[in-house]
Specification:
Length: about 350
């Protein structure tokens, strides 16, 4: 048995259909590039045109990135950009010795001590606000993450850093100096070590013989009584906390007056010598975006001069050098190349 296949169209039908459809010739290869865009365009050219414009704008923005302002750069500054050497905080009052102050019988002496009392209270209140009152809350427990004020440990930190710095400087231990010092002091120490190496003296002898002043018992030598004890060998003369122009960042700077007896022989000395020194040691701690650093030695400073005290008594805010915010902006602008 054979199967019969019947074609769906007859030959006559195929001929009629082929005659009704015109023959479309394909363009030659030379004319293909000149074909009208109307014959190859999409059904709607609006979306395509918008897409092309959008792509062009995106490409222009990628080639010419938008520059952020200095204020934005300061707020987005990282710990490395700011560094750890921002200088001494402006408007820091360090009372000079009594011999350099006016007599007690004058009204100016009273005004100076009243200014000292107001400054000390304002600085103490800033510590309370930043470390206790305005502390952030733990996202899990909801409790405030208060930080210790370390009022009884400030002098100990300053004395330890003061002694360790001189020992490391005498040995020429730059690794220890970089760990305990700010950038400026570490650079000055490196320069001093290189200079004495030129004299073929790699080591300087230094020894702390002790402190001079009244030694008070431990139960009495505690805050808030310790600042009132007279003739102390180590006393906190300034403790300030200032916010930085970065979110959840601030700097705490503490100045401790240390009276010590030191014996040393420097690179340009022929024999050892013993002297009494009154050093105003500056230590600081920087908290950057909630991450608290450790205490570092910034260096030594001098008491406030009478001219600066007169400016502060007159209500002036002008300070020698630039302000703290201007120092940070200068650092960031130098790194950004602006």
């Amino acid at each position: 048995m054979q199967a019969t296949v019947t074609p769906p169209f007859s030959a006559t039908t195929i001929t009629i259909i082929s005659r009704s459809i015109p023959h479309i010739r394909s363009p030659c290869p030379q004319c293909a590039g000149r074909t009208s865009s109307l014959s190859t365009r999409q059904f709607s050219s609006t979306r395509r045109r918008d897409a092309l414009v959008k792509n062009n704008v995106t490409n222009i923005d990628s080639r010419l990135p938008r520059q952020s302002s200095m204020k934005s750069q300061v707020h987005k500054a990282s710990k490395q950009q700011m560094g750890n050497d921002l200088g001494k905080l402006p408007q820091t009052l360090i009372l000079p010795p009594s011999s350099e102050l006016p007599p007690w019988t004058t009204l100016k002496r009273t005004k100076i001590h009243w200014l000292q009392l107001k400054t000390a209270f304002k600085d103490w209140w800033s510590l309370v606000v930043f470390l206790k009152w305005d502390a952030k809350r733990d996202p899990l427990t909801g409790k405030k993450m208060r930080r210790p004020m370390e009022l009884d440990k400030r002098r100990d930190y300053a004395q330890v850093l003061h002694e360790q710095f001189h020992i490391a400087l005498g040995k020429g231990d730059m690794r220890a100096l970089q760990a305990m010092c700010c950038e400026g002091l570490a650079g000055a120490a490196r320069t001093r070590i290189e200079k004495r190496k030129a004299l073929r003296k790699n080591v300087e002898r230094w020894e702390l013989l002790g402190y001079f002043g009244i030694g008070y018992p431990a139960w009495l030598d505690k805050w808030p009584l310790s600042p009132l004890l007279p003739n102390h060998h180590a006393r906190v003369v300034s403790d300030r906390l200032a916010p930085l122009p970065v979110a959840d960042s601030y700097i705490r700077q503490c100045i401790v007056r240390i009276r010590s007896r030191q014996q040393y022989q420097l690179a340009d000395m022929d024999k050892r010598t013993t002297h009494r020194h009154t050093d105003y040691v500056v230590i600081q701690k920087i908290t950057t975006k909630g991450e608290e650093g450790h205490w570092r030695l910034w260096g030594l400073t001098e008491p406030t001069t009478m001219d600066e005290i007169d400016t502060m008594l007159a209500g002036g805010t002008k300070d020698v050098g630039v302000t703290l915010v201007e120092r940070i902006r200068d650092k960031i602008s130098n790194l950004a190349g602006l």
